Amino acid sequence: MSVKIGENIDLGEFPLLLAPMEDVSDPPFRYVCKQNGVDLMYTEFISSEGLIRDAAKSIQKLDIFEYERPIGIQIFGGDIEHMRQSAEICTKANPDLIDINYGCPVKKVVCKGAGSSLLQDIDKMVAMTKAVVEATHLPVTVKTRLGWDDNTKNVYEVAERLQDVGIKALAIHGRTRAQLYKGQADWSMIRDVKRNPRIKIPIFGNGDVDSVEKAAAWRQEYEVDGIMIGRAAIGYPWIFREIKHFFNTGERLEGPTIAERVDVCKTHLIKSIEWKGDKLGIFEMRRHYANYFKGIPNFKESRMKLVSLQTKEEILEVLEEIEHTFHTELI
Ligand SMILES: Cc1cc2nc3c(=O)[nH]c(=O)nc-3n(C[C@H](O)[C@H](O)[C@H](O)COP(=O)(O)O)c2cc1C
Known about the structure:
Blueprint: E1 2-5, E2 9-13, E3 16-18, H1 27-35, E4 41-42, E5 46-47, H2 48-52, H3 56-60, E6 71-76, H4 80-92, E7 97-102, H5 107-110, H6 122-135, E8 140-145, H7 155-164, E9 170-173, H8 188-195, E10 203-206, H9 212-222, E11 226-229, H10 238-249, H11 258-276, H12 278-285, H13 289-292, H14 300-308, H15 312-326
Parallel strand pairs: 3-11, 4-6, 5-6, 6-7, 7-8, 8-9, 9-10, 10-11
Antiparallel strand pairs: 1-2
Helix pairs in contact: 1-11, 4-6, 9-10, 11-12, 11-15
Bound molecules: flavin mononucleotide.
Flavin mononucleotide is lined by residues 19-22, 24, 44-45, 74, 101, 103-104, 143, 173, 206-209, 229-232.
């Protein structure tokens, strides 16, 4: 059965979502994930304070492209009125949906009463969500965690109350705020939410999915409507097509060849330069090379070149060199 967000966003059967990731899920990275079959993507989280102050950095994050659809813009903040205003600003950017971040555990966000901090004040979370829902004609979705800490795992109640004020889907990261990214994600409460007969909206599971096997096993075990993947897609956007292929055919797809790795890395670089300009595009791409070529023995020398060269032409040349040098390596 097809999974739908609101009336109009049809994600097909068991969609795979790219998790919003600060400094990672920008348009160049989203491009290579889209090429590999991801069903729904989000921008990285955008500060509502930045949006209403018209801060250039926040406004730039609203850039979305037609080929990215369906795409959500994710916002965060601690002030209800500012979140309402930023929902209006986001609506003008014309995404397919607006997502609210109630999951970010980072101190500088939590200190301002934003992100996962709202898990400590569900009344305020509900009021904020209602304000955002009423400020836009677009579907509003939420991403959150199991609760603040081990003693307050309240996502079951959160899901009911947010559905009541009109959210159209909920993504749950199977950790508490106190856990940050430590330990293992526990999806059993995500299943409890999904099994709640009152819950009608799609429930997406998030946290630690990093292989086809895990995606298949957790789909069965936790009964979620789809899976959201973050870290495992960094440097490995093929994870989406591999999982999709397995679900569609029951067969494992071969991993990418060196030529494919080089090809996607080139595309990512070119898109990065297109979007950010030469200097920043080349600089910000540096963090990705090691991930794209993870597992290749004796890669260090090539990596050193990639992260120190200053021009697109030189980097493309090294990437071609990599293809020729390592094309026989099996990873
Ligand atoms: C570098 C990084 C940046 C992140 N930024 C965001 C963000 O902007 N918004 C958000 O909701 N979650 C953010 N997250 C959390 C991820 O969306 C996701 O919930 C988390 O990584 C767990 O999923 P995974 O195990 O598949 O990576 C971030 C995670 C990482 C690693």
